Amino acid sequence: MVSICFYLNQAYFHMYLVLCCKAQVIVCCFSMSMGFLIEETAPVVWRGLMVMSAVEKLLRQVDWGQLDYLVIDMPPGTGDVQLSVSQNIPIAGAVIVSTPQDVALLDAHKGAEMFRKVHVPVLGLVQNMSVFQCPKCKHETHIFGTDGVRDLAKTLGLDILGDVPLHINIRETCDSGQPVVISQPQSDAAKAYLKIAMEILRRLPVPPS
């Protein structure tokens, strides 16, 4: 099993099963979240020790089965959760995900430096919500700024793994439980996600068979 730590500013995740009949490949994706441990509308009002206890349960007491990859979604910041996860399980690499605006880039920069200090390899950066394309006229607008993550990557000496556009199809397909990579695999949005996935895999050790 290879652990990958995602340091995220904005993202959406769902549990789903991918069946790729042409390639005769079955990919099973499982999800576990703190949100499953409480009522759907209840806030997580936990102090540090309670949060750490929950993280420990998620890591040690979930029957994950035989995994090739374990992806850990962590919030922005450099607090107890991030440090404890980084120090208590072997992590093959971290991926920094950020939108291009300045305030988000500050957190992304701190996240990259934190992983370096705890000796976790940073595999690269992903620029999220990089551009909005009008579905009617196809005009492109950089709502959150242009290439801020690319500039940060140069500063840190890291690679850009890819760009995720701000596209209504991404939101709609996630809300319906059919992520765009499954429901619209030939779309530009799906291709963007698949490119990022391949770039990450290229930088990771091969899982044991």
Automatic annotation (TrEMBL):
InterPro entries in the cross-refs: Mrp-like_CS (IPR000808), Mrp/NBP35_ATP-bd (IPR019591), NUBPL-like (IPR044304), P-loop_NTPase (IPR027417), YlxH/NBP35 (IPR033756)
Any GO BP: mitochondrial respiratory chain complex I assembly
Bilayer-spanning residue ranges: 12-38
Keyword presence, Lyase: no
Keyword presence, ATP-binding: yes
GO molecular function term, any single one: metal ion binding
CDD domains to which the protein is assigned, alphabetical: Mrp_NBP35 (cd02037)
GO CC term (a single one): mitochondrion
Keyword set, alphabetical order: 4Fe-4S, ATP-binding, Iron, Iron-sulfur, Membrane, Metal-binding, Nucleotide-binding, Transmembrane, Transmembrane helix
Pfam families cross-referenced by the UniProt entry: ParA
Family according to the record: Belongs to the Mrp/NBP35 ATP-binding proteins family.
Protein name (Swiss-Prot/TrEMBL): NUBP iron-sulfur cluster assembly factor, mitochondrial
The organism's taxonomic lineage, starting at the top: Eukaryota, Metazoa, Chordata, Craniata, Vertebrata
